TrEMBL record:
Annotated source species: Verticillium longisporum (Verticillium dahliae var. longisporum)
An individual GO BP term: microtubule-based process
Predominant subcellular localization, coarse grouping: cytoplasm
Protein name: Tubulin beta chain
Segments traversing the membrane: none
Subunit composition and interactions: Dimer of alpha and beta chains. A typical microtubule is a hollow water-filled tube with an outer diameter of 25 nm and an inner diameter of 15 nM. Alpha-beta heterodimers associate head-to-tail to form protofilaments running lengthwise along the microtubule wall with the beta-tubulin subunit facing the microtubule plus end conferring a structural polarity. Microtubules usually have 13 protofilaments but different protofilament numbers can be found in some organisms and specialized cells.
Compartments reported by the entry: Cytoplasm, Cytoskeleton
Cofactor: Mg(2+)
InterPro entries according to UniProt: Beta_tubulin, Tub_FtsZ_C, Tubulin, Tubulin/FtsZ-like_C, Tubulin/FtsZ_2-layer-sand-dom, Tubulin/FtsZ_GTPase_sf, Tubulin_CS, Tubulin_FtsZ_GTPase
Keyword Metal-binding on entry: yes
Gene Ontology CC terms: microtubule
Chain ranges of the Tubulin/FtsZ GTPase domain: 1-172
High-level lineage: Eukaryota, Fungi, Dikarya, Ascomycota, Pezizomycotina
Length: 245
């Protein structure tokens, strides 16, 4: 948090919107959801209320969190459920970093993720699934980075978030707000978990220009190597799909 405040983006945030805790959840979902996180969630909700009250037309909320640890999974889903209680008619979109099949930090990641998915099924309207293994693979295989840093991974995540929210920020006919995106993309209310493909992929600081045709872009978008989750979608079927250009 201090690094964010002191960094180049620190001026984007109001100083009193930072909420600090004295201890972490120790990769324990229950601590994040019921004890440590529950002690902080009211302070966080005060910040959310203050920002929501300053909006003329509040569309909804976008939450970024991890499902593998204790704080992002446990407290993150608690916050989502509390926001849902307070703003039941607003949209809830989450960018959730799911545990990877091969890249794993802790042995309890599957448990934390399983407990979190139940909460997301009930309380989220749109969940964009991202995992670190897919991001590492993109950095190494596609972007040819020998030793990817978290900054490189975050660059990819930020590109995805920017792309998904493009139609919210610029004029357009399709998916022009969070609710319309859900109407077009969610066939059943509980079935709202999306895989994100992105093209063209570029590394941080890359300024080289390359002309790419529409067929090439389309091919890249549906290439498993360009997916932000390490799941081969060719094993399943498309229920819905949206290309945001």
């Amino acid at each position: 948090m201090d690094a964010v405040r002191a960094g180049p983006f620190g001026q984007l945030f109001r100083p009193d919107n930072f909420v600090f805790g004295q201890s972490g959840a120790g990769n324990n979902w229950a601590k994040g959801h019921y004890t440590e996180g529950a002690e902080l969630v009211d302070q966080v909700l005060d910040v959310v209320r203050r920002e929501a009250e300053g909006c003329d037309c509040l569309q909804g909320f976008q939450i970024t969190h991890s499902l593998g640890g204790g704080t992002g999974a446990g407290m993150g889903t608690l916050l989502i459920s509390k926001i849902r209680e307070e703003f039941p008619d607003r949209m809830m979109a989450t960018f959730s970093v799911v545990p990877s099949p091969k890249v794993s930090d802790t042995v309890v990641e599957p448990y934390n993720a399983t407990l979190s998915v139940h909460q997301l099924v009930e309380n989220s309207d749109e969940t964009f699934c991202i995992d670190n293994e897919a991001l590492y693979d993109i950095c190494i295989r596609t972007l040819k980075l020998s030793n990817p840093s978290y900054g490189d991974l975050n660059h990819l995540v930020s590109a995805v978030m920017s792309g998904v929210s493009t139609s919210l920020r610029f004029p357009g006919q399709l998916n022009s707000d969070l609710r319309k995106l859900a109407v077009n993309m969610v066939p059943f209310p509980r079935l709202h978990f999306f895989m994100v493909g992105f093209a063209p992929l570029t590394s941080r600081g890359s300024h080289s220009f390359r002309a790419v045709s529409v067929p090439e872009l389309t091919q890249q978008m549906f290439d498993p190597k360009n997916m932000m989750a390490a799941s081969d979608f060719r094993n399943g079927r498309y229920l819905t799909c949206s290309a945001i250009l």
